[in-house]
């Protein structure tokens, strides 16, 4: 079984991801893969340099993320070009890693994809597990975590799909606004219900 794990900013998805790994279930993390597919020599790296030129490289000939970020920040077309390069590479690598875990005898693999629902990647998973907290807790956590103002936190949250809309799509939800022990208990109950081995 492939489980898609998702959430919103500051909902605690990484905490749940860690709990899943502690239970011996392999997790394939989209954020880690997004960095791997642009390492020097990779297909993603070559395509980015081809599309944007050497301006996106550091002196050490690695990808200059800040520079690339500046280029695409206010330019929808350039952002689209970058996404068209990255997304297929990330999906391919996620599939490769999850296939490897399944071949090695694991019965379940979790794909940790922050934008699983927004990017229409539901087809990659048999079940979708959402880590949820109400928006006011998201704001509180973000302000604390990033030392940001309420306005900055709100603007980051509003740049994502509303967490309440994601509830409609999820097969199950972990309400992560209580104690850690409560989150663990919910996770264990869901894994049991889904007969995860």
TrEMBL record:
PANTHER family: BIFUNCTIONAL COENZYME A SYNTHASE-RELATED, DEPHOSPHO-COA KINASE-RELATED. One of its GO terms (molecular function) is dephospho-CoA kinase activity. Belongs to the CoaE family. SUPFAM superfamilies: P-loop containing nucleoside triphosphate hydrolases. Its EC number is 2.7.1.24. It is found in: Cytoplasm. Pathway: Cofactor biosynthesis; coenzyme A biosynthesis; CoA from (R)-pantothenate: step 5/5. This is Dephospho-CoA kinase. The keyword Chaperone does not apply. Transmembrane segments: none annotated. ATP binds at residues 10-15. Keywords: ATP-binding, Coenzyme A biosynthesis, Cytoplasm, Kinase, Nucleotide-binding, Transferase. Pfam families: CoaE. The keyword Transmembrane does not apply. Catalyzes the phosphorylation of the 3'-hydroxyl group of dephosphocoenzyme A to form coenzyme A. Its main location: cytoplasm. It catalyses: 3'-dephospho-CoA + ATP = ADP + CoA + H(+).
């Amino acid at each position: 079984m492939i489980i898609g794990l998702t959430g919103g900013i500051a909902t605690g998805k990484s905490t749940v991801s860690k709990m899943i790994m502690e239970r011996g279930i392999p997790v394939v993390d989209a954020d880690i893969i997004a960095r791997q597919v642009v390492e020097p020599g990779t297909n993603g790296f070559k395509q980015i340099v081809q599309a944007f030129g050497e301006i996106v490289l550091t002196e050490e000939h690695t990808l200059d993320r800040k520079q690339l970020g500046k280029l695409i920040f206010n330019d929808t077309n350039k952002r689209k070009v970058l996404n068209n390069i990255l997304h297929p590479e990330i999906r391919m690598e996620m599939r490769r890693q999850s296939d490897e875990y399944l071949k090695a005898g694991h019965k379940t693999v979790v794909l940790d994809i922050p934008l699983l629902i927004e990017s229409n990647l539901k087809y990659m998973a048999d079940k979708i597990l959402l880590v949820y907290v109400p928006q006011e807790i998201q704001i509180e956590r973000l302000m604390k975590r990033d030392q940001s103002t309420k306005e900055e936190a709100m603007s980051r949250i509003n740049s994502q799909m509303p967490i309440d809309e994601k509830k409609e799509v999820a097969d199950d939800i972990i309400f992560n606004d209580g104690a850690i022990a409560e989150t663990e208990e919910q996770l264990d109950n869901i894994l049991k219900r889904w007969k995860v081995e």
